[in-house]
Amino acid sequence: MGTMTVEIDGGRDAFAPGERVEGVASWELPEPPSALEVRLFWSTSGRGDEDQETVAVETVPSPAASGWVRFSFQLPPGPYSFSGRLISLAWAIELVAPEESAAGSASIVVGPDRREVRIDGEPAAAPDLTASAT
Q1: Which CATH number applies to 3-112?
Q2: CA separation (Å) from 108 to 48, 59, 64?
Q3: How far apart are CA 95 and CA 105, in angstroms?
Q4: pLDDT tens digit string along 71-85?
């Protein structure tokens, strides 16, 4: 059992469509994996069929048992990250070695103004302006 991590430059977790997401994926495994990939993907969760699509993959050539690699993905125009009562769609970047049970991932939000879209008529989370400082 090893460790795998994905870190996005600047600790960012929210992006606009079309922006570039860059960072470092690192791993420390008991032995060299037969394959190692950094993947950009989205997935849905909630009621109904769960869907997932891998948008881009960067393969790590001849990976050693431990190491790191930089990744750079251009985000597509959509779909936007969204959240609702019945279904949500989330984006993430993951580091995967097929034969390892371990995987590393970082969740990101992709949407206009770098914010998740709210659906089902729910208002977007806004700062509470009614709280007064005492």
Answers
A1: 2.60.40.640
A2: 23, 20, 28
A3: 6
A4: 999 999 999 999 988
- 73 alpha-carbon distance from chain centroid: 11
Parse the chain into domains and list their residue ranges.
Answer: 3-112
What SS3 state is found at 83?
A: strand
Q: For Cα atoms 58, 109, 102, give the angle at the middle one, nearest 5 degrees.
A: 50
- 9-26 per-residue burial string, b: 16 or more CB within 10 A, e: under 16: eeeeeebeeeeebebebe
Dihedral of alpha carbons 105, 98, 57, 66, sign? positive
Q: Which two tokens stand for residue 28?
A: 């420390």
In this prediction the pTM is 0.85
Residue type, 129: L
- 19 vs 128 pLDDT, higher one: 19
To 10 degrees, the CA torsion angle through 60, 62, 65, 71?
-20
